Amino acid sequence: MNRICELFNIKYPVIQGGMVWCSGWKLASAVSNCGGLGLIGAGSMHPEILEEHILKARNATTKPFGVNVPLLYPETEKIMEIIARNGVKIVFTSAGSPKKWTAWLKDNGITVAHVVSSSMFAEKSEAAGVDAIVAEGFEAGGHNGREETTTLTLIPSVRKATSLPLLAAGGIGSGQAMLAAMVLGADGVQIGSRFAVSEESSAHPAFKQHILNLSAGGTKLALKKLAPVRLVKNAFFEQVDELEKRGASAEELSRLLGRGRAKKGIFEGDLENGELEIGQVSAEIHEILPVKIIMENLISEYKSAVKGILAEKRFNF
Known about the structure:
Largest sheet: 8 strands, parallel
CATH architecture of the largest domain: Alpha-Beta Barrel
Order of helices and strands: HEHEHEHEHEHEEHEHEHHEEHHHH
Mean pLDDT: 94
Low-confidence stretches: none
Distance between the termini: 30 Å
Number of helices: 14
Number of domains: 2
CATH class of the largest domain: Alpha Beta
Strand content: 5-15%
Radius of gyration: 19 Å
Shape: globular
CATH superfamily of the largest domain: Aldolase class I
CATH topology of the largest domain: TIM Barrel
Number of strands: 11
Structural class: alpha/beta
């Protein structure tokens, strides 16, 4: 049996990324109901809002679901207490050291996965006691690793560094990409951008429509002096880019970023002044689809790709 499916008790080794302002209870429960693992994104939620989403997700699905907790955000302690109190059994941590919370989570009967951007961090995560690793490549949207290592390079490197169940993330939006990641050593995939533009995503309709119009090169990594993040090129991005080219300090960039930029762009639909986070694979997204169709497409594409490799003579040497 597939190790990711066994670990999380799911049908398909497909995890929906816990994205800020996109991954609410509707998206998480829809993915779980379709055989994947849905994650509620705690990074854009106050603790009391997260609790609402957990309760609503539990009413919307009998399948496993989890919560993604970016450790760099405030109120982490309250968030963890709510997760434990409400009986959430799966937590994905990111953007911070797994040392602080992994043991506590496991003591509370919670399965833990941690997101890394290098084989070194994968080794540290295994030493901290996590149950699974998410290796996220440079192509991914949102907060990214400083190493700028692509998924194609990262997955085999992390596979050599750890024997834990491994999920590939970054640039994966199709069944063919899913197969490629698994050939490189991943046991499954975590997908963000494709689900961010689903019907069930809580992102603003204007944001979703805007993503459909992006072409190759429509996103770029920015804010490297703060925490690297992949953004859509818009008026806000141009301001950031100009400051960075001038050698602006972290303090100057922080003042420009201010508060609520991602909410303004992704959740409220301000396409010029908001921080629009999405991955490079967005250039291949051309429709806003329900989760059910997205999952069906992923699995059918994956199975077709496997059959194609077995059948096509171009793979024989």
